[in-house]
Amino acid sequence: MRPGELIAGDRGARALRDGDLAQAWAVLAEVMDPEVPVVSVIDLGIVRDLDWRAGHLHLVVTPTYSGCPATEVIEGDIRQALEQAGFAEPALERRLTPAWSTDWISDQGRERLRAYGIAPPAGSASLRGASPTVCCPQCASSDTELLSQFGSTACKALYRCRACLEPFDYFKCL
Ligand SMILES: [Zn+2]
């Protein structure tokens, strides 16, 4: 069948066109995390795979924190953005293994977190347990102290900078 041709008997299904997958990635790069609206689902690394199956876009999504209520919101936002871009009824597959890790956050995502005032995860998740050196997102000082294991959400810790005295959220390593 020709690229883009509708598939009979399945609403919205069509053959893959050149550029469809690249466009879908571009759409996803604009879908922001509801809790931290400066990082996209691509920055977070939660979209693990994207392909075309039986006339529809098929995505594999690994939620950041299992049981996080934001997961449903993120999946809804992904679906809506793709539908609006002309991808009818995208299929989302939720994959829990391997579990998402902060190691999957892109360099751009880390930079965006810092610019937003959240210290990005320090080091690698494989080093968790060791106390990380957390740098202040405002003044970059490493002279910081932990105030609380839980910041504005469970996945963040609250720190304070001893240099500029500003409190800030730190995105914990997972
Ligand atoms: Zn500071």
TrEMBL record:
Name of a matching Pfam family: Zn_ribbon_PaaD
Segments forming domain PaaD zinc beta ribbon: 123-172
Gene3D superfamilies registered for this protein in UniProt: Fe-S cluster assembly (FSCA)
Signal sequence, renumbered to the chain: none
The organism's place on the tree of life at top rank: Bacteria
Domain MIP18 family-like positions: 22-84
Protein name: Phenylacetate-CoA oxygenase subunit PaaJ
